[in-house]
Amino acid sequence: MGSVVPCPTPLSAVRHPAFARTPRMVAPRSRRKTISGAIGRCAAYGESERRVFLGPPLTYKRRGIDGKAERRMGESEATGPLRGIRVFDLTRVLAGPTCTQMLGDLGAEVLKIERPGAGDDTRGFAPPFIAGTAESAYFAGVNRNKKSITLDIAKPEGQAIARRLIARCDALVENFKVGALARFGLGYPDLRDDFPRLIYCSITGFGQTGPYAPRPGYDSLIQAMGGIMSLTGEPEGPPQKVGVPVADLFAGLYGCTGILAALCERAVSGRGQYIDIGMLDAHVAWLANQGMNYLATGKDPPRLGNQHPNIVPYQVFPTADGHVMLSIGNDPTFARFCENFSLSHLLSDERFTTNARRVENRGLVTDTLTPVLQRHPTAWWVEKLEELKIGCGPINRLSDVFADPQVKARGMVFEMPHRALPEGTQLRLIANPVRFSETPVNYRGPPPALGEHTDAVLGGMLGIGQTELARLRAGNVI
């Protein structure tokens, strides 16, 4: 098999409607080929061909699902692998915005649709505020790289404008209650025939089917129902919620993964599809080893505090001045620990010789090692254990995390200008952790003000003039 020339063009170019005019780029279902085949065909197109179809950076021409050419609004150029993809974002709060911010960071143009006069609920989830502004820190955390358009989709004119925008989008993401968007003619069955290339992702508490489908979903509720609270906390204490909204976050990331896979499928088939994400489903999926522990034994795993259910010692120990996390993942590492800290006698004790025996004798292991770890301060243990290549670390507060040299070296906090901040002052945000060698993530726009891009998007994308915009605004449509 011959070598394949690397393709500088993102996968979005393979599926782009402009490319669909070339029959060999999108095969019918009866002649469907593999994704690798589609990517191989992409290798035939270099940057010059990409610009023929998409135009130059910043103002390139693209075609919406309705086939009409349009011009993208000027903005800093997207560099991520999803550049050229556009998303119609009907999400709010956390699960959905997590999904769409990830798509935006990866280069997609995200049109965030918000209620006129109100907007995303998280705009009011404060304090804390961004210092010196009325901007919620919560909202700022999941809404960069988005354009805010105020649009009342409960009004017929709003629905008509929504459909015109959807015609120019590759994906739609929403987290309304099951069936709610059907009232506005914007459910998937209402759109799929008119926009067969559209990828439509719904993120709800319990998915589109099953007895709980109509119920609203909240992170704390899903954590309670999904079992994680029964696993978190001290053995004799109450069930404990995780300190960040993991049920929301995982649902959003699973939604993003589904959309990326659907884009790959569309590159081959030319067809969009529906993606159904239930927060409870996602939560059960990431129960991981604890879920499998139950399925293997039929027994509910107990709460173990900071200990690991399958590995010992793999837990927090007190030190002379605080605590340290000791993570010994295998028997050779345990032997190295014992040999270096005057515990070699444990290696001839069958209760300590293998991980399985240490799990069986969890209490004994903990009681034996605790006085040893208490002899020295945390920093001493971290230094010595790192020299021995034994997993360990301090218990950091967030102030410690953001001051950590590794976190700084990896650039996990970045700064960008923000309209509400004084000139020369930058907004600090948490960076995207995905690192690409060729198509890096970039940060093109700060979290938007409510409706900040309404006129630019409706005017530039749909050709709606100022007089009509004023009329729509007076009627509370936008």
**Beta-strand level of the residues, as a percent range?**
5-15%
Largest sheet: 6 strands, parallel
Shape: elongated
CATH architecture of the largest domain: 3-Layer(aba) Sandwich
Mean pLDDT: 86
Low-confidence stretches: 1-74
CATH topology of the largest domain: Rossmann fold
Tally of discrete structural domains = 2
Oligomer: single chain
**The CATH superfamily title of the largest domain:** Crotonobetainyl-coa:carnitine coa-transferase, domain 1
**Neighbour order of strands in the largest sheet:** 5-4-3-6-7-8
Share of helix among residues?
Answer: 25-40%
Number of strands: 13
Tally of alpha and pi helices: 21
Question: What is the distance, rounded to the nearest whole angstrom, between the alpha carbons of the first and last residues?
Answer: 56 Å
Radius of gyration using CA atoms only? 26 Å
Q: Which CATH class of the largest domain is shown? A: Alpha Beta
The secondary structure category is alpha/beta
